[in-house]
Design goal:
The protein is α/β, with parallel strands linked by helices. The protein has 2 domains: 131 residues, Lyase, Ornithine Decarboxylase, Chain A, domain 1; 238 residues, Alpha-Beta Barrel (TIM Barrel), CATH 3.20.20.10. Helix content is 29%, strand content 23%. It is built from 13 helices and 17 strands. Strands 1, 11, 12, 13, 14, 15, 16 and 17 form an 8-stranded mixed sheet that branches. α10 links the parallel β8 and β9. α3 packs parallel to α4 and α10 packs parallel to α11. Bound molecules: pyridoxal-5'-phosphate.
Length: 382
């Protein structure tokens, strides 16, 4: 079997997961207790006035339900995400829903403002080209603090060459556009990237936003975005959440006039998820051992897209000696269609149940119909 991982709840529950796999694979399974654990670890840190969940990470109704019960708000990037949370939770205070779109047409802002959810503007264009849409409204503004961070180029969402946010050099022009349009900026927002493992990232972002707030007298909220990392390798040191909170705490004490918000996706959802697959075929070619699964990059694209590491284990043969470094691949016609390389697996046979871990975020939500294959089914283990 693979070495035991930091995130191995699914190895402890292998029996029930094997039973679940009988009902069909590929299947994403999410553990409600892990979702709750993650939500509580952030809420009890004591540095955030509000925690929003980034819905794009995983919009499964069961997952959203757990976070709603835990008192989280929601950060949404499309009208469909907003409609999903409002449809599921009609009692939800709409001011706890933040719509943070990027390069969307004017109608999406009009729609969101009419729905009464909070809206983030991340470009000067909407304010300068359509001032009448925002006149008399409150908005959050997304700034680009100048430097992106994260585990891969594709997830760094600030700095030169990033399409997100407003440049700090444009604050004067932004203040002018806001004044002209008769808009109140009540929140400043930044999200610098995903999988950011620097504990000073929150504090650094917060300092930039607090300084920028000098331009906007109505600012009440500093939203520091998401981006907390998740351990994926065995033995990887866990992120020092307490240290990150302590660094932010300093600013909080100096600036009691601001509320501090955060909006993670991956940290809240990733560890709760496991993808159950079955072995379709094996192959030995050129000295390489392949194990093929009844899933593919259409089911889970992170390894192909970001070179992301996900733990993999053969649930049908737990406890058996790992004999082969194995290429674990899918059934999509792309050479990048692999879930893991050199994975230590025992002798593995057709029909075995393979589990891929840490897939609760950006797994099912990024699935596609590529090759006209159906995405995996999903269920919540409560
Ligand atoms: C604006 C915004 N907020 C929050 C997130 C969540 O990021 P993560 O899942 O890394 O916490 C993202 C991710 O793309 C984002 O774009």
């Amino acid at each position: 079997m693979s070495p035991t991982l930091a995130t191995d709840w699914w190895l402890d529950r292998a029996d029930s997961l094997r039973d679940l796999a009988q009902t069909g694979t590929p299947r994403y399974v999410y553990a409600a207790d892990i979702l709750r654990r993650q939500a509580r670890s952030l809420r009890t840190l004591g540095v955030f006035d509000r925690v929003l969940y980034a819905v794009k990470a995983n919009a499964h109704p069961g997952v959203l339900g757990v976070f709603h019960e835990e008192g989280l708000g929601f950060e949404c990037v499309s009208p469909a995400e907003v409609k999903r949370v409002l449809g599921l939770f009609p009692d939800l205070d709409r001011r706890h829903v933040l719509f943070t779109p990027n390069f969307v047409p004017r109608e999406e802002y009009e729609w969101a403002l009419a729905e009464g959810v909070r809206v983030t503007v991340d470009n000067l264009y909407p304010l300068e080209a359509w001032p009448e849409v925002f006149a008399g409204r409150e908005v959050f503004v997304r700034l680009d603090p100048g430097q992106g961070r994260g585990h891969h180029d594709h997830v760094r969402t600030a700095g030169r060459r990033s399409k997100f946010g407003i440049d700090l050099d444009d604050l004067g022009r932004l203040a002018e556009a806001v004044r002209e349009a008769g808009v109140r900026v009540t929140g400043l927002h930044a999200h610098v990237g995903s999988g950011v493992d620097a504990p000073d990232s929150w504090a650094e972002t917060a300092e930039v936003l607090a300084a920028a707030a000098e331009w906007f007298p109505d600012v009440q909220v500093l939203d520091l975005g998401g981006g907390l990392p998740v351990p994926s390798h065995p033995g990887a040191p866990p992120f020092d959440l307490e240290r990150a909170a302590t660094l932010l705490h300093d600013l909080r004490q100096r600036r009691p006039d601001f509320q501090f918000w955060t909006e993670p996706g991956r940290f809240l959802a990733a560890e709760s998820g496991v993808l159950l697959c079955r072995v379709t075929q094996t192959k030995d070619k050129g000295g390489v051992r392949y194990v093929g699964l009844d899933a593919g990059m259409n089911t889970l694209v992170r390894p192909a897209m970001y070179g992301a590491h996900h733990p993999i284990a053969n649930l049908s043969r737990l406890g058996e000696e790992a004999l082969h470094p194995t290429e674990v691949v899918g059934m999509i016609c792309e050479s990048g269609d692999a879930f893991g390389h050199d994975i230590p697996l025992p002798e593995t046979r057709e029909g075995d149940v393979i589990a891929i871990g840490t897939v609760g975020a950006y797994g099912a939500s990024m699935a596609s119909h590529y090759n006209l294959r159906e995405p995996a089914t999903e269920s919540l283990l409560d």
